[in-house]
Amino acid sequence: MRAELQRDTRHWLIATACLTVAPHTLWLPSWLSALCAILLGATLWQAARARRALPRMLLLFIALAAAAAIKLHFGHFFGKDPGIALLAALLCLKLLESRSSRDARAVILLAFFLQLGLFLNDQTLAIAALALCGTLAATVTLQSLHLGAQPVRVRLRSGAMLLAQALPLMVVLFIFFPRIPGPLWGLPADAHSGLSGLSDTMAPGSISELILSEAIAFRAAFDGPLPPPEERYWRGPVLSEFDGRSWREARFSTAAQPPYVAAGPAYRYRLTLEPHNRHWLLALDYTDQAPPGSRYASDYKLLSTRPLRERIRIDLQARPQTRPGAQEDAAVLAAARRLPSTGNPRARALAAQFAAPGATPAEILQRTLEHFRDARYVYTLNPPLAAADSVDDFLFDSRAGFCEHFSSAFVFTLRAAGLAARVVTGYQGGELNPVDGVLVVRQSHAHAWAEVWLPGEGWRRVDPTALAAPARISTGLAEALPAGTVLPLLMRAEFSWLRQIRQRWEAASNHWNQWVLGYDRERQHELLQRFGIGDTGWQRLALLMSAGIALLVVALLAWAYARPRRGDALDRAWAALCAKGAGRGHRRQAWEGPLDYGRRLAGACPAQAQEVHAIATEYARLRYRPPADGDAVRALAQRIRRLKLQ
Amino acid sequence: MSTGATLRQRLGDRLWRTAQAEAGPIRLGQRRIYVLPSAAGWAYGGALLVMLVASINYGLSLGYALTFLLGSVALVSLIHAFRNLLHLEIRPGHAEAVFRGDSAQFAIHVHNPRPTPRWALSMKAGGGQPSVFDLAAGETATVLLDRPTTRRGWLALGRITLETRYPLGLVRAWTVLRPQLDCLVLPRPEASPPPLPPASAGDRGGMLRRSGDDDFAGLREHHYADSPRHVAWKVAARGGPLLTKQFAGIQGGELCLDWSGLGAMADDEARLARLAAWALAAHGEGRSYALQLPGSHIACGTGSAHLHAVLRALALHGGGDAR
């Protein structure tokens, strides 16, 4: 082991650190990213100019200052984010003071931990590729600790060879290692921060913020035909309580059986939900036969018994034609009629017109719908800021809004007219990926609509947004918005080729998510069953894993023992002749030259004497009068093969 | 040798199967190569364990993948380390005689029969410094191993270790060998010995004509200790080599280095040291000398072969064996 670090080892070490720290800058506080960049720069400068090390006291001071700043920034030390921040600072500092191969090893181990920390934030394909590069750089660094200076290409090749030999072993371990459903102990409180999705309250502007995100909320793979676009309503929180400005969920109960009688055609699908740290499962209306681990809420949404903290897959069945709520609880209806005592006087006056004496609920609903259709409200992503009376403001002043304004104003008006109504949030629509036939639903598909209760019929879904912008429901957001609205890049029609690339990429990501990131106990079971392995207890898995590893290790050992064939083609041909001679009891002696041996062998086998003599002469000619050309060597080898000594 | 050290030696011989020194070439097969994680390897393993637990806890699929990849790399590096030693051929070379107290140097030939290079090999004899070397494809290297010498006589090379931590330093692959190779340790000559004893009166009448300048006998190579008066300056002035004139008178007296002539000295080792110093001095002066030891006699002679025979007899006196 060479104690002092070589120059190029130092460079490889810096490359490893950069590959590991760089992606973290997306999540690290900016001051810390800057500090890491400065420290890495200082290391590079030191390596380039062969400067002396900074004084230890200074490094210690920087370390303490960074730790204090991290404590100040996050308010605590124990958690995912401060932990990663500390690791990153430590890695850069350790790199700066690295002198010996021992230091280099410490840096490499820190880099591995930091790499793992990155996966807490991001596990996409790109990050995985980056991690592979980081591992390669780390391997090369470790290797260079033992070897003298070599060109980059040689170093990379031997590092890549190690990795290539390790990959099959990794795959065996990955497939067969028994998966234990975590967590083993309580996770830090911030372990699942940064997950976006719907919220259980809705104030003006809350959904239009979400809609700018192109992040995927969930994917649905249907068995058979897809439901028509107007039935693609994915139910999230149901908001019944209104305080004049924002809508909240009312109390609800949960049960194992659906609170409705499912009817109509069924659609079976597999839902893959991205984690959002809430309970709701965003199932298509209305679920039939809830799978284990889920329950029906009394307001018809499907809930998971545990918050969704990792990506999950569930198989569901929906019957969109179901008419729920014919016998609704009086308390639920009372809550769905309640309004604050004051506010939005103009809306209340409008409602009073609709609720003229003698009007049936169906007539009131009809009038309200006609008003929303005829008033020509504008559907826009950038609604003007709402005044104190948000409903009045939308209905009479700005006359422009997004789905939350439409649904909020619509439900308010119906309630003011005495009907039971509520806001339902969730997602609407979805985008079919033609590559793999999966319906992709993004945060930009977030939506809010309304439900009205009619006596004798139950809850009827009404989408007031559809009245103003029918295209929103049938084709999508982009067509529904007036021209000139600034849309996210990929939603624009002229970038369809870009969208196509994205669809391919997302189909690949979906496979990645399903089979790599989502590889859990069930997937393991499913995969092994395909290969006819029914029992997936841990003992069986351990056995299979050991067998796989043993097989690969034997293959590697065979490689270690392999000895390349000795000599060139000409030598091998000559050796074949000598073997033939030895077979007849005339072994070539070590001191015998080809001509001598040929003479002796020819004497011993008079039948082939001429041929043996010719072969020996030809060999001597090819061997000792270079250069021998390949054809002559091949011809000689063939002659020797054909020769049969008697 | 103390009983503890003997016991350790025996145990080691049992463990490494090195009870018999091997004279012929040794080809390393799987039965002779041992592989265990190094200290760095244990640290690496510990880190992987922490990463695995973290992956389970947070349900990180890529965490599993990274941990498994790093673990597999370590396993593959173990096989690379093993392969780095496999099929090496080791032959004992030679060892020059040294004086006691100097370190003995044993030459070992290591041959790489494979057409790919071997990296970062390190060979070490007990108590010596390791020597680190690489072997190119098909190359044979001669490695010099140091061992300290404490006693005169034969010093066997004993057990040597050939190890490698290539490629990642996580694994130490090693082999323990005992090639048949001995080094003669000569008695350390006395630092400032008294002048040579007078030549014995005998065959030529005992004329000691040290200052004689008449019986010129010939020229020999100049030695550092020669008097400038005897330098053949004429030859030197002609551009020839520096030579010393030899005179018959100096060669005349036969010098006998006699063990029993040192009656006053009690310690055998001190006697041997004195005799060795005198032998060197006599050789330096180009004189002919004989050695008389209890039980052995070396007749009068000159030259380095004679000197070596005399020193060897001194080294092995009384069955001196440093093994």
What's this model, at a glance?
The complex is a heterodimer of chains A (646) and B (323). With 646 residues, chain A is α+β, with helices and mostly antiparallel strands. Chain A has helices at 7-21, 30-49, 56-74, 80-96, 101-121, 125-144, 152-176, 206-210, 330-335, 345-354, 361-374, 390-398, 403-416, 464-468, 471-474, 477-480, 496-517, 521-530, 538-561, 569-583, 594-604, 609-624, 630-642; strands at residues 201-202, 216-223, 233-242, 247-249, 254-255, 267-273, 287-288, 294-297, 302-304, 312-318, 378-379, 400-401, 420-428, 431-433, 438-442, 446-454, 458-462.
Descriptive report:
The complex is a heterodimer of chains A (646) and B (323). Chain A is an alpha+beta fold and 646 residues long. Chain A folds into three domains: 7-150, no CATH class; 201-493, no CATH class; 569-642, no CATH class. Chain A has helices at 7-21, 30-49, 56-74, 80-96, 101-121, 125-144, 152-176, 206-210, 330-335, 345-354, 361-374, 390-398, 403-416, 464-468, 471-474, 477-480, 496-517, 521-530, 538-561, 569-583, 594-604, 609-624, 630-642; strands spanning 201-202, 216-223, 233-242, 247-249, 254-255, 267-273, 287-288, 294-297, 302-304, 312-318, 378-379, 400-401, 420-428, 431-433, 438-442, 446-454, 458-462. In chain A, the strands form four sheets. A six-stranded antiparallel sheet of chain A has the order 1-4-3-13-16-17. Chain A has a six-stranded antiparallel sheet with strand order 7-10-6-2-15-14. The model of chain A has no long low-confidence stretch (mean pLDDT 84). Chain B is α+β, with helices and mostly antiparallel strands. Chain B has two domains: 3-186, no CATH class; 216-315, no CATH class. In chain B, 30% of the residues lie in helices and 28% in strands. Chain B has helices at residues 3-16, 39-58, 61-85, 233-237, 248-252, 268-284, 304-315, and strands at 26-27, 34-37, 89-95, 98-99, 104-111, 118-125, 131-135, 140-147, 153-156, 160-164, 171-177, 182-186, 216-221, 243-247, 255-258, 289-293, 296-301. In chain B, the strands form five sheets. Chain B has a five-stranded antiparallel sheet with strand order 2-11-10-6-7. A four-stranded antiparallel sheet of chain B has the order 1-3-5-8, with no helix packed on it. In chain B, strands 4-12-9 form a three-stranded mixed sheet. In chain B, strand 15 (255-258), helix 6 (268-284) and strand 16 (289-293) form a beta-alpha-beta unit. In chain B, helix 2 packs antiparallel against helix 3 (61-85) and helix 6 runs antiparallel to helix 7 (304-315). The longest helix of chain B has 25 residues, at 61-85. The termini of chain B are close together. Chains A and B meet through helix 5, helix 6, helix 7 and helix 19 of A and helix 2 and helix 3 of B. Chain A: It comes from Pseudothauera lacus. Chain A: This is DUF3488 domain-containing protein. Chain A: Residues 395-466 form the Transglutaminase-like domain.
